[in-house]
Amino acid sequence: MKITSSVLMANFINWTVSIDCGQQLGVYQGQIISVDGEKQTLTLKNSFRNGMLCDTKDITIKATDIVDICLIADPTNAPEVPKVVKAQRDEAKAKPAPVATNGMSSSKSSCYSSQTTPPANNHIKRCTSQQQHQFRRSRSSKSWSDSGGQDERPPTVSHPSTKTSVIVEQTSSPEKRSTQIDVSDNQDDKHFDFETNLALFDKQAIYAEIESAIGNGENHLHNHSNYHHPSIRQQTQKYRCDQMILGNNDPPVYEQIILPRTTTKVYTTDEGLVIPCLTYDLRQLLFSTAEQFGYTLERQIEAMGSCCMEMCLHLLGGSHRMSLNNSHQRPVVVVLAYFEVQGAYAICCARLLATRNVQVYLYMPDGLQQTSLAYKELQLFKTTQGILTNNVNNLPHAPVDLLLNGLDSTNDQLLFAKIWYRDLVSYSNRLQANIIGIDPPMDGGAIGCKWSLLPVLPLHMSKNVGSLYLCDLGFGRQIFEKCQIQYKSPFTKSFIPLHDKQ
Fold first, then answer.
1. Nearest-angstrom CA–CA distance, 429 and 446
2. Tens digit of each residue's pLDDT (9 = 90 or more) over 200-241
3. H or E element: which one contains 177?
4. Taking every annotated instance into account, which residue ranges of this chain make up the domain DFDF (predicted)?
5. Angle 498-501-502 from CA coordinates, rounded to 5°
6. From the CB of residue 445, how many other CB atoms can be counted at a distance below 10 Å?
7. In terms of CB atoms within 10 Å, which of 122, 221, 331, 495 comes out highest?
8. Are residues 322 and 454 in the same domain?
9. CATH (domain of 380)
């Protein structure tokens, strides 16, 4: 930039301007006091550099260094910069002025301080032992002009761990004197020292006094009710949010089922109840005793089928999956059944699922006799809209939500020798659907199951049967007592999961 005429520029004397001198020199603000056309210079008073008040009284800027210049205020609106900021001083020592940082390392630091009767020209220079503190003006020249020249400072950034040296220079006195005072930036912040206060408290002595009072039979624990120690024997019992505080507070008994002979294998429920495993002979005795008390096979099949149906609906998505809004995507379930009681369980479950608008495919091989347990259940299934077939090719290939396996049984170990059984094993492997085994044998079967549902009490099952679930058939306690089994029902719903304790 070039100054063409000093006479023309003289019209801008006392104007408040903002001059951009590039990245190296920065931006200057101040009032124009003189313009020299020959030397191509411009002089400012009350000047700021990058928002910070300059230490020198006047600043002279060359025209060649000026990139841009902006007029901020005319002389009538340009206020006078205060020379001294009044600060309250304590009688014992002077408090430092607030410190504000702008993150620039190239600027000098400055602030103002005064005594009760401040001298004419007092300057306070602050220097830290760790780093140079930066002092920044609370606003730019424009905001300073608009606010009427009042000194408004932004929130300060304090450094509590930095010791500061304050040097007060009094230039008005004939003999220049300097006084150095060590202050701390956080002298106004009085924090409570918890660690020091805690060290003054002798906890062991208090604990010893309380325990000795308990040992001597003295009842003055109320004097130390605010102190607790894990070794104190008299502690307040705490209760869970779901625990009955008005009932019996005896510890829970987890072994509520005791067999006449100790078993080597047990399972546990979600609540931690111990479920022992029956032997095959004891299980047969239990079911035959139930029939003697009136729990016929039809009742047992209906209870097992209903429980299996509820588990299937739970795995299919519950009532939301069966709602009217999802009628366009009815779940598909394939049921494989045989002539044994496991097949009757599966057919009963298939019938109950079909009555709840589930698309059911039931496979039953040829040769079913009228005296078989599954015959009556099959006749009931035919009253539904379920699909019955004896051909593997008629079963759906995809997508299938669940597959119920009612083929494998302890009474028939020769199923794998039959061609249709091997075809069903290949079909289940290709289907890649979740498989539920209904009362499978202890070693599992050729069809791998993800879940297995067992009635009343489990047998010693292998790992091939997947996750175990126990079904409640509703047997009364007298049936178990007849078999010399101490029994208390662990069921909170129709089926519960079992976990291997070992």
1. 10
2. 788 888 888 888 877 665 454 444 444 445 444 555 567 777
3. strand 177-184
4. 180-216
5. 135
6. 20
7. 331
8. yes
9. 3.40.50.10260
